[in-house]
């Protein structure tokens, strides 16, 4: 049995379709004072999967998720798999300044103490978030469906990570597609001047790292000139980093620039700014609902649940 929370109902329906499983309806509403109402409308199986992202509005979606889990336990569910495609508050996995709340740990503890028996997410910002759980966890990758999307819109792509932290995503996609990949790096030229450049991997990596990239790249990775550049990141929020990257790729002669991400947070006018900078396409997965959530993660969730 699959239950989709308010934030992930279409995704839950697609997962249920992939698995040939029952989709259980729920009723939710907000009282005039802002409190949430939730009712599960159907007979409850012993094993249930709840799918609910906890993106904006984070507090409402998180409370609904906790209500769903605890309510299912009290109604007789014995084993609850909780799928949170995008984990809100997941980016604060440690205390960066004295006195800060480690929100990722608090949220993880709440999900587990509500009655979750397994936890599954997609491209957590830091895999170390899984260490906050004592129940089985999985952090699955959305790169395969993103790679499928890229293969449909490009013929000769080069995969670009907007910083070194996203290089792993670029490498994974490059290996799937058999194309090249590289990343961008910020170089401080002075107290008030920073330059972002496309990295020459031949000089920037240790030999073992370079061998790995060469294996994934298949072709020359020193230039984007004449290539269909595809920027890949896990989360795009304001879009500032992406706008900067598009400009640099255009300056280096990229034939076109497409932008893909796992979690399209996209606050304020992020999509507009990215297109205005010269992006040909902008696409995210449906871990979050947005105007560009064109890549479905239903199949990889279904595979994980199997």
Strand proportion: 25-35%
Number of alpha- plus pi-helical segments: 10
CATH class of the largest domain: Alpha Beta
CATH topology value of the largest domain: Rossmann fold
CATH architecture of the largest domain: 3-Layer(aba) Sandwich
- How confident is the prediction overall: mean pLDDT? 90
Question: What is the rounded Rg?
Answer: 21 Å
Low-confidence stretches: 201-207, 213-222
* Beginning-to-end CA distance, first to last residue: 13 Å
Notes on the structure:
This protein is 34% helix and 27% strand. With 306 residues, it is α/β, with parallel strands linked by helices. The protein has 2 domains: 2-141, 3-Layer(aba) Sandwich (Rossmann fold); 143-286, Rossmann fold, CATH 3.40.50.2020. Strands 11-10-9-12-13-14-15 form a 7-stranded mixed sheet, with helices on both faces. The chain has a 6-stranded parallel sheet with strand order 2-1-5-6-7-8, sandwiched between helices. The chain has a two-stranded antiparallel ribbon with strand order 3-4. Helix 2 links the parallel strand 5 and strand 6. Residues 201-207 and 213-222 have low confidence and may be disordered.
Features:
306 residues, alpha/beta, Rossmann fold, seven-stranded mixed β-sheet, 15 strands, elongated
Write the layout of secondary structure elements.
Elements lengths: L1 E3 L4 H11 L3 E2 L1 E5 L5 E5 L6 E5 L6 H17 L4 E6 L18 H11 L4 E5 L14 E4 L2 H11 L3 E5 L5 H11 L2 E11 L2 E6 L2 H4 L2 H11 L10 E9 L3 H12 L4 E9 L5 H7 L4 E5 L7 E3 L2 H8 L1
Helix pairs in contact: 1-10, 4-5, 5-7
């Amino acid at each position: 049995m699959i239950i989709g929370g308010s934030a992930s109902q279409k995704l839950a329906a697609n997962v249920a379709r992939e698995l040939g499983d029952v989709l259980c309806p729920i009723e939710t509403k907000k009282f005039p004072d802002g409190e949430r109402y939730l009712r599960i409308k159907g007979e409850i199986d012993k094993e249930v999967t709840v799918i609910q992202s906890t993106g904006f509005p984070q507090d409402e979606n998180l409370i609904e998720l906790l209500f769903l889990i605890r309510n299912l336990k009290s109604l007789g569910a014995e084993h609850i798999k909780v799928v949170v495609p995008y984990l809100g508050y997941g980016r604060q996995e440690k205390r960066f300044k004295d006195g800060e709340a480690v929100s990722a740990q608090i949220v993880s503890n709440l999900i587990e103490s509500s009655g979750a028996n397994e936890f599954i997410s997609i491209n957590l910002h830091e895999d170390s978030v899984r260490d906050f759980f004592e129940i089985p966890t999985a952090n699955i990758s959305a790169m395969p469906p993103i790679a499928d999307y890229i293969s449909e819109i490009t013929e000769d792509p080069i995969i670009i990570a907007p910083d070194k932290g996203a290089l792993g995503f670029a490498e994974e996609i490059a290996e799937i597609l058999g194309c090249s990949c590289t990343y961008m790096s910020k170089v401080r030229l002075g107290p008030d001047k920073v330059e972002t450049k496309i990295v020459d991997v031949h000089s920037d990596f240790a030999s073992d790292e370079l061998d790995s990239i060469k294996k994934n790249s298949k072709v020359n990775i020193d230039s984007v000139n004449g290539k269909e550049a595809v920027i890949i990141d896990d989360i795009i929020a304001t879009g500032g980093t992406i706008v900067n990257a598009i400009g640099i790729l255009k300056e280096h002669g990229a034939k076109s620039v497409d932008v893909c991400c796992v979690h399209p947070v996209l606050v304020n006018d992020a999509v507009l700014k990215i297109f205005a900078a010269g992006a040909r396409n902008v696409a995210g997965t449906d871990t979050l609902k947005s105007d560009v959530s064109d890549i479905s993660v239903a199949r990889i969730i279904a595979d994980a649940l199997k």
